[in-house]
Design goal:
12% strand; 9 strands; 341 residues; globular; 2 domains; Phosphorylase Kinase, domain 1; 11 helices; alpha+beta
Length: 341
């Protein structure tokens, strides 16, 4: 049944692309997928090549993506150009920005220049006058994200059963993180502003995957940029880039606090994000059959180990990770593998 549905969707996607381009012999090849339900397809046999975004309407409405794209473009943020659209079918025809994102192109030698360009785009994004009905990164959302860690990673993935005392300790750490996030000045937040969602382009980099934007803590996106899900940098370089962002944001009139307070805010919102992403990666594996993301979970524990000891309010969280989570991870990694069916 699944194969039949996918084949029907593929035929519909190809027919739509041919009609949108006015080119009856064009073909499509897979360009990329993301952690959601969208997929991207590059045209073959047509110059210049284009990208078809396929967003199945029963799984992921394309209209939030289009709406936020228009908001960002109006504010001068570089976003993909839309050449044709059919929101009822969930198809968009986009400019082709190439094969590589920042994730494939950035390295130790070009990182300063790449991140300077990314910061300039981020500042434009943060200066956007967000729509009044845009969701806020409020108490409920922050808490729901944090509980992905204990629910999906600790519970579902590691099989841990947490005691009432352990949950109380986690809840106290969560409350500390939430209070810090809510105390930060609020701006438009992309929520995944990282190298994988940036592509080199004229007047760029181009910003991708912005449909889940909210209004929230000013330190969130810049921390996401430098403590990425798929790429790690030496702490001293991260510190320098945070200072660079702070200076540029302050010069542009964004409401950043003094540098020391900003670094603290970035570190603490980073802990919230790291716990959330660890939970999301476990959910992608167990619920959505996308196991590859789990390989990057240790990176987030490395990030946590660099921050948790600095804050007494997070000592119980640090102890929980050390005493319960790490041993369970080690046991899972060393467990005998079931034979293939």
């Amino acid at each position: 049944m699944t194969d039949s549905i996918e084949n029907l969707r593929a035929a519909e996607r190809l027919a739509w692309a041919r009609a949108a381009l006015g080119h009856p012999s064009v073909e499509l090849e897979r360009a990329s997928t993301d952690a959601g339900f969208r997929s991207y397809w590059r045209t073959v046999g047509h110059t210049p090549s284009r990208i078809v975004m396929d967003s199945p309407t029963d799984k992921e409405d394309v209209r939030p993506w289009l709406r936020m794209r228009d908001v960002l473009e109006a504010a001068g943020v570089r976003v993909p150009v839309v050449l044709a659209q059919d929101v009822d079918k969930g198809f968009l025809l986009l400019e082709d920005l190439g094969v590589n994102t920042y994730l494939q192109d950035i390295d130790a030698h070009n990182a300063d220049a790449f991140f300077d360009a990314a910061i300039m785009q981020l500042i434009k994004l943060q200066k956007v006058d967000a729509p009044a009905d845009l969701p806020r990164y409020d108490d409920e959302m922050l808490g729901r994200e944090l509980h992905l860690f204990d629910t999906w990673f600790c519970g579902t993935h590691l099989g841990l059963s947490l005691s009432c005392e352990e949950m109380e300790q986690l809840d106290a750490a969560y409350r500390f993180l939430i209070n810090n996030a809510l105390a930060q000045n609020a701006v438009l937040v992309h929520r995944d502003f990282m190298p994988r969602n940036l592509m080199q382009a004229d007047n760029g980099p181009a910003v991708l995957d912005f449909q889940d934007a909210v209004v929230g803590p000013i330190a969130y996106d810049v921390l996401s940029l430098f403590k990425d899900a798929f790429l790690s940098w030496p702490p001293e370089r991260v510190d320098a880039w945070l200072q660079r962002y702070h200076a540029m944001a302050d010069a542009e009139g964004l409401p950043v606090p003094a540098l020391d307070a900003f670094v603290r805010d970035a570190e603490l919102i980073g802990v919230q994000r790291h716990l959330k992403v660890i939970g999301i990666f476990a959910r992608l594996h167990h619920r959505d059959s996308k196991p590859k993301y789990l390989a990057d979970v240790p990176r987030f524990f490395d990030y946590l180990e660099g921050v948790l000891p600095k804050y007494p309010e997070l000592s119980a969280l640090a102890a929980f990770v050390h005493a319960r989570v790490k041993p369970a991870m080690h046991a899972l990694e060393n467990a005998p593998q079931a034979p293939a069916a």
